[in-house]
Design the sequence.
């Protein structure tokens, strides 16, 4: 819990005035006034078998769309959050994966602000425009997975039939 609090604290330090708790003047100038709340996308994590299919962007887009009512800004700090695997030991690979994660957030309309904090204005049409494309991507994946599942069941049936023995 301490690590999560630290990440949220760092995001708040970049975006909020410590005396008022409101957005800093600099942040306010970049955002249209459509609300006063701040939604922080602290972490989007998928189990390893689900990674690499574009699902994180689809799910993040849907979550943001549902939660952003009344928000003036949505913020995130893109980067690797699963440090348990120790898979990324080479600096070049670490940088490559972090850049890919940042590109995913940027594809939703997030823009770099400062100190690895990215901002999305709920008034921007970027997210809604991407939502249609992401939903189509999900439908395409669903079709591919159904085809693969049918093929797997068919192969299993053949292996279990007398002719497959």
Sequence:
């Amino acid at each position: 819990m301490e690590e999560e609090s630290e990440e949220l604290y760092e995001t708040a330090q970049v975006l909020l005035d410590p005396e008022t708790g409101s957005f800093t003047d600099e942040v306010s100038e970049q955002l249209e006034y459509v609300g006063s709340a701040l939604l922080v996308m602290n972490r989007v994590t998928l189990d390893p078998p689900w990674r690499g299919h574009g699902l994180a962007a689809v799910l993040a887009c849907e979550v943001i769309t549902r939660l952003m009512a009344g928000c003036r800004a949505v913020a995130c700090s893109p980067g690797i959050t699963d440090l348990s695997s120790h898979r990324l030991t080479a600096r070049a690979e670490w940088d490559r994966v972090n850049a890919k994660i940042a590109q995913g957030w940027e594809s939703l309309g997030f823009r770099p602000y400062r100190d690895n904090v990215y901002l999305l204005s709920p008034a921007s049409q970027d997210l809604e425009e991407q939502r249609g494309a992401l939903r189509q991507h999900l439908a395409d994946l669903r079709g591919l997975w159904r085809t693969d599942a049918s093929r797997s069941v068919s192969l299993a049936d053949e292996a279990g039939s007398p002719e497959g023995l």
